[in-house]
C-alpha cells in the first residue's frame, strides 16, 4: 500500500514539474517575441509605419530608422512597413497596434486624442517621443486678381464682409484640409456659412488646387506645407499671388487649437517679399503607451544624438531642436516616460 501511495505521489510531482516548465517556457517565448518589452538590453524588433517607397515620408523614416538603431541594443532592427495612411490618420495606426513607430503631426495627434479623428473614437494608447521635425506652416494665398477686384486683402475681411469667395482646398483626410477647417473655425465660420454667402469650397487633389487658381476658378486657398513645396512653387511662378498676414487674434486661436508659432521667411515664394507670421503643426514621432521605457529612451537618444547626420541627409530635419522637441505644442499628445527621462537626464527639460 505504501509503495502504491509513494508511486502516485511521484507521478503527481513529475506531472506538476512538466506543466510548470511548459508554462514558464511559453511565457519566455511571449516576452522574446514582444516588440515593446526589453530585458537587460536584449535585442528588440520594431516596426516603423511609413508611406510607399519613393515618398518624402519614406525618406524621413529611412533616415530616422538609421539613427534609432545606433542607440538600440546590439542585434536590434527596425523594419519599415508601408502601413501608414499618410494625411492625418497616423495616430490611428498606433492606437490599433499596427506598428510600433509612426510619424504624424502634432495637431492631428492632439485632435485624435481629444475628440477622435476621421470618424474614430479618441485615442488612448498614443504617446510621443519627440516633435518639431520640420518647419511646415499654414499657408494662405489669394490670387492678385481677387484682391484687385474686391479690395480684400485678409481672410478676416472676407469673413467680416461675408464675401462670396471661391475656395480651393485639398480633400478631406489631408492636413491641408484640416488647416483650412481650423482657420475658419478660429474665425467662427463653417463651410455652410461660406455657402450661405454665395461662396463655394471645392475639395480637390493638390495639383488641381493649383490649376483652379491658375485658371481663375478659385480666389483663395489654404494649405499646410513646407518651403519649396512643388505645387505652391509652380503656382507662384506662373500666377501673381497675394500673401495675406493673419491677425494676431486669429494666430492666437490657432495656437490654442494645437498649432505652434512659426515664420514664413521672406522670398519663400516668388512675389512674397516680406516675412509672414504663421503657425504650423510640425512632425512628431508617435509610439504606443505600453512601449518599454528603456526602448523609448533609446529611440529618443538615437534621434537627438544623431541629429547632425539626419540634417545632412534631409535638410528639413535641420530644424529639429531638442531644446523644444519635448514641449507639448510640438508633441500634441503626452510624452512617453522613457523619452521624458532622456530629455531630463540630457538637460533639455528644466
Layout of secondary structure:
Layout: H1 2-33, E1 45-49, H2 56-71, E2 77-81, H3 90-95, E3 101-105, H4 106-114, E4 126-133, E5 137-143, H5 144-150, H6 155-161, E6 166-170, H7 175-186, H8 191-196, E7 200-204, H9 206-214, E8 220-225, H10 230-238, E9 241-242, H11 248-257, E10 260-264, E11 276-280, E12 283-288, H12 293-305, H13 307-313, H14 328-331, H15 337-345
Parallel strand pairs: 1-2, 1-3, 6-7
Antiparallel strand pairs: 3-12, 4-12, 5-8, 5-9, 10-11
Helix pairs in contact: 2-12, 9-10, 12-15
Key structural traits:
single chain; 350 residues; alpha/beta; D-Maltodextrin-Binding Protein, domain 2; 2 domains; 3-stranded antiparallel beta sheet; disordered N terminus
Number of distinct helices: 15
As a whole number of angstroms, the C-alpha radius of gyration is 26 Å
What CATH calls the topology of the largest domain is: D-Maltodextrin-Binding Protein, domain 2
What is the overall pLDDT average? 88
Total domains, how many? Answer: 2
Structural class of the helices, strands and pairings? alpha/beta
Percent range for β-strand residues:
15-25%
CATH architecture of the largest domain: 3-Layer(aba) Sandwich
Distance between the termini: 76 Å
**What portion of residues is helical?**
40-55%
Largest sheet: 5 strands, mixed
